[in-house]
Known about the structure:
Oligomer: single chain
Number of strands: 11
Strand content: 5-15%
Order of helices and strands: HHHHHEHHEHEEHHEEEEHHHHEEHE
Amino acid sequence: xxxxxxxxxxxxxxxxxxxxxxxxxxxxxxxxxxxxxxxxxxxxxxxxxxxxxxxxxxxxxxxxxxxxxxxxxxxxxxxxxxxxxxxxxxxxxxxxxxxxxxxxxxxxxxxxxxxxxxxxxxxxxxxxxxxxxxxxxxxxxxxxxxxxxxxxxxxxxxxxxxxxxxxxxxxxxxxxxxxxxxxxxxxxxxxxxxxxxxxxxxxxxxxxxxxxxxxxxxxxxxxxxxxxxxxxxxxxxxxxxxxxxxxxxxxxxxxxxxxxxxxxxxxxxxxxxxxxxxxxxxxxxxxxxxxxxxxxxxxxxxxxxxxxxxxxxxxxxxxxxxxxxxxxxxxxxxxxxxxxxxxxxxxxxxxxxxxxxxxxxxxxxxxxxxxxxxxxxxxxxxxxxxxxxxxxxxxxxxxxxxxxxxxxxxxxxxxxxxxxxxxxxxxxxxxxxxxxxxxxxxxxxxxxxxxxxxxxxxxxxxxxxxxxxxxxxxxxxxxxxxxxxxxxxxxxxxxxxxxxxxxxxxxxxxxxxx
Length: 514
C-alpha cells in the first residue's frame, strides 16, 4: 500500500470516528434499537446515510496534505490586473478584444491633469465600483439574516430575564436578612441566638410540631427545623465573619411571622449563650428583596447617600428621612419622623416604557438638585452625584480600581525607554479580577433622565402608613399630592369604580401627579 493510500485510509477512519462521536453525544435513537418502530420516519435514515456518505466522499476528494481554507463571511470578487486594465479601457470606448487597440491605449501618454483624472475615474467606474457593489450586496443579505436572528435572540433573552426575575422573587420570598452580628462570632456560635428567636414564636413552634418535632427528642436547636437550610454566613477575612446571616425558611408563613415579630426597631439583643450577652450588638431583621429590585432602587439609594454626604461636608447632623419604598419616593428631611400635614417630597423614581424600551425618570426637588450638583470633597468626579454613584455602586472595588490604575500608570511611565518590563509587585486584587469586574461596566443598564422640578408628587396614603397615621388617609392609594391631603371625590352610589387613575398631564414645573 502506498503512502497516499495509507494516508487516505487514516483520513477516512478519522472521519468515521468523528461521526460516531457526534452520534454518541445525542439521545438514543430508535434506529439503534433492536426493535424497529413503524413510527420512525425513513427520511431520518436516508439523511444520516447521506451525511455519512458526504463526509466519506469529502475525505476521498481531499487528500490529507491539502486543507481547504475556511470560508469567510464575505466573498470578495478579485479582478486580475489585465482584466482591470481592460475594464478601465472599456470606459473610454476601446475594443478590449482587439489586442492592437489595447496596446495603443496602454501606450498613450497622459500629458494633462484632466486626462489623468479621467483615467482614475474610468478605473473607479470599471473596477472599484463593481467590487464595492458586490460586497454591499453581500452585506445587505447578511444583515437581513442577522436582523432576524438578533430579534429571535432578543426575544429569548427577554424570556430568560423574565424567568430569572420570577425565580429571584420566589427565592427572596423565603429569605430573611439578619444583621448586626459580631464579626468574631462564628456561624456555629450564632445558632443559639437564631434558635432562641425562632422559639419565641408560637406559629413556628406549631409548624414544627405538626411536621418533624418529637417531644421526646433531646436536641437543643430543634427550632432550626423551620429553616430549609443551615443559616448562611459568608467569611470576612481571617478569623472574621460577616455581620450578616441569611435565613431561608421552609414556609412563607413562618418567614412572615418572623419578620413581623423582629422586623424594624432597634433589634433584638445578641446573646452568645443563655448567660453571655454580647454588648453593643442588636440583631436587626429585614425581609430579603430580589436582586433586580435592589438594582432598580439604586438611584434612590444614591440620592440618600448624597443627602448624608452633604450633611457630613457641612458638619451638620443629618435629619431623619422618611422613605416610601413602594413608590420609590424620598421625603424631605425633617426634625422627626412624625406625621406632618405639609410634608414635601424631595425625589421620586419612576419607570416607564417607551418604544419598547424600559426607561427611568428621577424627579428631584430644586434644593436636592443643588446638593447633587455640588463639588465632591475628594475624587475626580464632576459633582457629588457622580461621586456617590461610583462609591455606592462599586464600593471598595472602585477605590481599588483607582489605586491600581495609578500604580500601573506610574510603572508604565518608568519602563519607557528601557528594555526591561514594567516593574510591578503583587496587586491587592487577584489577577483575574479585571475579567470579573470592570470599572467601565454599567451596573444600571436602564436609560435614566434626571429632571429638576419645583415640586415632587408622592402617595399620601402610603406616607400616612409609613408615619403610623392611618386616621389621615383618604382611602385611595392612587391619589397623589404635592403638599397636603389630596381631594378625593367619593364615587356615586351604584357607579362602577374606575380600574385605574384617570390620565392627567403634569403641571408645568412640577413632578408627576400619579
